[in-house]
Design a protein that fits this description.
Residues 1-121 form the ASCH domain. The protein has 128 residues and is an alpha+beta fold. Helix content is 32%, strand content 28%. It has a single domain (2-120), classed as Roll (Sulfate adenylyltransferase), CATH 3.10.400.
């Protein structure tokens, strides 16, 4: 899945992403901020690009709009479809284990972090 999402970042079809405020809090990490740059890595942990966060919003899950859902680049054409896919991930065993809460669920009021970003630099392939 990572390589599919990385490819979408590289081809420009993925310009947004969503995270759970609960995940940031659990990890003790600050929320992202506009202007922050980070390296995108593929499934082999190879750096492939540098992105810059251009916008960050924290909203209740019920307020995620269609533009954000579409801009995640996963092929969703409705907020309902986007949300169903994200809920499968957020309610999955891996996320529940990461949060230390086997019964974790989201609802309309769950705060989510909506990030927009742009590719700043494409990095050369190893050996190239």
């Amino acid at each position: 899945m990572r390589d599919r999402l990385v490819a979408a970042v590289l081809d420009g079809s993925k310009t947004s992403t969503t995270g759970l405020v609960a995940d940031y809090e659990h990890e003790g990490e600050p929320l992202p901020e506009a202007g922050r740059r980070e390296v995108v890595v593929d499934s082999r942990e190879r750096p492939v690009a540098v992105i810059e966060v251009t916008e960050v919003r924290v909203v209740p899950l019920a307020e995620v709009d269609l533009a954000h859902a579409v801009d995640e680049g996963e092929g969703d054409t409705s907020v309902a479809g986007w949300r169903a896919g994200h809920e499968r991930f957020w309610h999955g065993a891996e996320m529940r284990a990461a949060l230390g809460d086997p019964g974790f669920t989201v609802d309309d009021a769950t705060p989510v972090v909506l990030e927009r970003f742009r590719v700043v630099t494409l990095l050369p392939a190893p050996g190239g």
